[in-house]
Amino acid sequence: MDRLDPATISIVLVEDDRRIREGLRVLLEGTLGFCCTGAWRSMEEALAHHWNPVPAVALIDIGLPGMSGIEGLKLLRERYPTVALVVLTVFDDDERIFNALCAGASGYLLKSTPPARLLEGIREVVAGGAPMSPEIARRVVSLFRTVQPPDHSEYSLTPHELRILKLLVEGHSYKSAAAEMGTAFHTIAFHVQNIYQKLQVHSKSEAVAKALRSRLIG
């Protein structure tokens, strides 16, 4: 496989279970369009290495020995702002989901995810989406339903912008959000830039985290 091919998605792994780590490496290296450029058993090992070239995606377990994956997400987000950080874990509780998204995770998948869906999720996050296992997406939506939205938005988001933000939180890409709202891709992109400006963020994961922390979606 030609790893210099720009169409190839480069991925690194942070996973302490050797069997799972090697299984993921074999899956990625054996699938056309993917390559694994690094694999470490702890967050400390991952942070000790300079990721060169910088990968497109990092698959990260959060139940790691030593430094937790969630703590590591924050450090990786600062060091490698262009990398899509996707959690791959067995944990599906609200607290870890919430903390991972707030720490900068661009997706949240369970280890029970079938290989074909995992590869699809990697492609999705590279395309600007936020892949989530169905169970996780339901919990995220439920989280918003259990809290009351604020009486007014301190960020002055319009109802239309709030609807787009809700779609982003639910894992939609610009393309699928446009289809959901019956509008053009460039229209969604325009509104998302306005949302970023009002929320004072620079990426989808930051926007989702701020929406969660500020309970902007009712």
Radius of gyration: 17 Å
| Spatial strand arrangement across the major sheet | 2-1-3-4-5
Q: How many alpha or pi helices?
A: 10
Shape descriptor reads globular
- What is the name of the CATH class of the largest domain? Alpha Beta
Number of strands: 5
* Average predicted local confidence, pLDDT: 87
Helix/sheet category: alpha/beta
| Number of structural domains | 2
Q: Under the CATH scheme, which architecture of the largest domain would be assigned?
A: 3-Layer(aba) Sandwich
Order of helices and strands: EHEHEHEHEHHHHHH
- The third-level CATH topology of the largest domain is Rossmann fold
Give the low-confidence spans. Answer: none
Ends distance: 47 Å
Q: CATH superfamily membership of the largest domain, which one? A: Response regulator
What composes the largest sheet? 5 strands, parallel
- The fraction of residues assigned to DSSP E strands is 5-15%
Helix content: 40-55%
How is this structure best described in words?
This protein is α/β, with parallel strands linked by helices and 218 residues long. The protein has two domains: 125 residues, 3-Layer(aba) Sandwich (Rossmann fold); 68 residues, Arc Repressor Mutant, subunit A, CATH 1.10.10.10. Strands 2-1-3-4-5 form a five-stranded parallel β-sheet, sandwiched between helices. It is globular, with a radius of gyration of 17 Å. The model has no long low-confidence stretch (mean pLDDT 87).
